Write a sequence for this structure.
């Protein structure tokens, strides 16, 4: 049996995925320009919207260019020390330069050069390493997934700001949830992040999803579009529904496929999102999911709230990617079958209105 082209594991590019070509091409155009105007890019969105896949695609495209060094950093560890260590481990001229010129023994990097005093400031060490990279006419791309407003992240962002002011050849792509990126931007010393280009992982094109389903499952156009509409353009849903349709002997939407689809959405994404909402967030969402779209006035009437009471929660839910409030006076939930999930949570007694 042919391998299933869909996958629901995170942080890997599945064989069957829809590339966000416009975002990828725009960032690559900036990064490969003779004079880089934007050294920092932010990818934001809720879980399962393809931030990691998009960043990985950009990394792979950049790796084809010998002028670039790519370093992937873990934001839960010391990022500056990690950057210096990974540059050393990248091999070639960078390893030779450190062993010949820098005593980084304090950080457990390279050989101990007795003739040179050990460097105690990691930022100074990185500056010297980047000057060597510039001398070799190369550039460094640092990618960070799941950014948050942690001390390591703040230290890295502050140092990055200094390094780009020195006109050193370093760029970064950061990916994270809406609220985490927003918190990081609001740090008083990191306001430069507000000026960084931000790309929100918007829903995938339904026509493109329908065409992929039609080709893979041999269904007619109308049926394929029904499947696509069920995903609401949410990338994880596109993968999950595709996976279970592929595993069905007839590649047909039926009760079993739908149940497995709902279970995957709940287990991999929705339970985590729900757990991070406040009681009041959940209160409003329990009414919002009753219709595909409703007026704000209807919501307030159902919830028994006043407009000024809802304002801050509308912003919160919008920033978490759970609602679309772009149409004046209207509101709609954005995630596929989130209404089914919320009803299930309430019926199981996991949340009481």
């Amino acid at each position: 049996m042919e391998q299933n082209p869909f996958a629901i594991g995170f942080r890997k590019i599945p064989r069957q995925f829809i590339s966000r070509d416009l975002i990828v091409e725009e960032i690559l155009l900036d990064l490969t320009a003779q004079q880089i105007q934007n050294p920092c890019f932010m990818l934001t969105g809720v879980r399962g919207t393809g931030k990691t896949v998009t960043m990985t695609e950009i990394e792979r495209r950049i790796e084809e260019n010998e002028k670039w060094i790519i370093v992937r950093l873990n934001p839960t560890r010391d990022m500056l020390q990690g950057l210096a260590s990974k540059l050393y481990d990248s091999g070639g001229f960078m390893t030779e330069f450190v062993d010949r010129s820098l005593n980084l023994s304090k950080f457990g990097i390279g050989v101990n050069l007795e003739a040179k005093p050990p460097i105690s400031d990691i930022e100074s060490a990185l500056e010297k390493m980047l000057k060597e990279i510039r001398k070799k006419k190369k550039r460094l791309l640092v990618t960070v997934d799941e950014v948050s407003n942690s001390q390591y992240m703040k230290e890295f962002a502050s140092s990055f700001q200094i390094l780009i002011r020195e006109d050193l050849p370093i760029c970064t792509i950061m990916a994270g949830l809406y609220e985490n990126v927003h918190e990081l931007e609001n740090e008083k010393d990191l306001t430069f992040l507000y000026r960084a280009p931000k790309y929100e992982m918007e829903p995938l094109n339904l026509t493109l999803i329908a065409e992929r389903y039609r080709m893979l499952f041999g269904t007619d156009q109308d049926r394929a579009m029904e499947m696509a509409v069920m995903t609401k353009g949410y990338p994880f849903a596109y993968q999950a529904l595709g996976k279970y349709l592929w595993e069905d002997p007839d590649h047909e939407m039926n009760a079993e496929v739908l149940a497995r689809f709902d279970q995957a959405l709940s287990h991999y994404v929705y339970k985590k999102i729900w757990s991070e909402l406040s009681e009041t967030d959940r209160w409003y969402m329990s009414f919002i999911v009753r219709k595909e779209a409703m007026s704000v006035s209807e919501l307030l009437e159902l919830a028994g709230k006043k407009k000024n009471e809802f304002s801050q929660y509308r912003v919160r839910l919008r920033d978490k990617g759970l609602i679309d409030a772009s149409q004046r006076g209207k509101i709609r939930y954005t995630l596929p079958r989130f209404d089914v999930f919320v009803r299930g949570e309430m019926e199981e007694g996991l949340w009481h209105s």
